[in-house]
Amino acid sequence: MLAIAGPALAQKTGDDDVRFLENFDGRFTGTGRLQKAGGTSHNLNCRFDGERQGTRISLTGRCSTALVFSTTVSIVLAFNPATQRYGGSFRDGRGTVAELSGARRGDSLSLTYTETAESTRPGPPATLTIRRSDNGLALSLRSSHPARGQNIDLALNEV
Fold first, then answer.
1. Tens-place pLDDT, residues 108-156
2. pLDDT for 60-111, tens place per residue?
């Protein structure tokens, strides 16, 4: 009986994830904070466009500070129904390239964030959490080494 129920359960879970990913279609704007390991912090203004194609999503946008700093950001994720896991990449215009891997828990994606050798200034491993709420997205990046790397918190509203 379990052998028969197994594929049906996996299909139902996969359908739930496809519906979850539909929530990432749209335009999002908002603010946040970048906290660097050295103690400096900056307020951020960000704009992202989200697009879903099947079991794949992309979030592309730009974040800037009140100063001259501005960078592009691209997050691409794909859901694998066979493994029930997400994988993809993070890139920014300042040379950061990271691999993303993780799973969904309710309305949140919890992803390991591991910078690759391609990064211009590789940082320590981190955790990227993307949470979908009724009115937008929340992104949180947490370094695994508080004395190195950076933490980012963004609250983005759908427009």
1. 999 999 999 999 888 889 999 999 888 899 999 998 877 777 889 999 9
2. 999 998 777 899 999 999 999 999 999 999 999 989 999 999 999 999 999 9
- The CA–CA distances, whole Å, from 41 to 25, 66, 153 equal 30, 12, 11
What is the pTM (predicted TM-score) of this model?
A: 0.86
Distance of alpha carbon 99 from alpha carbon 113, whole angstroms? 6
Q: Which token pair is 62?
A: 């730009």
CA angle 34, 39, 43 (to 5 degrees): 25
DSSP string, 83-138: TTEEEEEEEETTS-EEEEEEEEETTEEEEEEEE-TT-SS----EEEEEEEETTEEE
**Cα(9)–Cα(102) distance, integer angstroms:** 20
φ, ψ of residue 138 to 5 degrees: the values are -125, 130
How far apart, in whole angstroms, are the C-alpha atoms of residue 24 and residue 5?
30
Q: Count Cβ atoms below 10 Å from residue 120 Cβ, excluding itself.
A: 9
For the record, the structure tokens of 50 come out as 């989200």
Q: Which residues contact residue 87 at a Cβ distance below 8 angstroms, ignoring those fewer than 6 apart?
A: 77, 78, 80, 99, 100, 101
Dihedral sign from CA coordinates of 104, 43, 47, 156:
positive
